[in-house]
Amino acid sequence: SVDFDTPSNDFFLVANLTIENTTDEERNISSILNFELKDDEGYTYNTTILAEGTKGQLDGTISPGDILRGEIPFDVSESETYELSFEELLAEGKATWNLPYNELSE
Q1: Rounded CA separation 24/10 (Å)
Q2: Cβ neighbours of residue 58 under 8 Å, at least 6 residues apart?
Q3: What tens digit of pLDDT does each residue of 26-49 get?
Q4: Distance CA 25, CA 34 (A)
Q5: Three-class SS of residue 102?
Q6: Radius of gyration of the CA atoms of the chain, in A
Q7: What is the pTM of this model?
Q8: Within 10 Å of residue 59's Cβ, how many Cβ atoms?
């Protein structure tokens, strides 16, 4: 059997996010398709599965004016900093957040 809660790399980084739809159209959010995490050496990490320890998935449809909250786990190697990016399919632009290792909480 596969133990999803044992990291293949150094540890799990879990991003806790809230997304607000400020447009007048429904938006579909996929933690797998819209988000990417990169370390300070340029390696990218995909989302992973945790059997326990996350508060809701960040996947679904957001109506205009609504919010969607959830957590996205990544199986990562230790790095001085990480870059989390959100890119909406078929749209221009990308939102990026820098996550310094020394500011992560356990």
Answers
A1: 41
A2: 17, 19, 29, 31, 35, 68, 69, 70, 71, 72
A3: 999 999 999 999 999 999 998 988
A4: 17
A5: helix
A6: 14
A7: 0.85
A8: 16
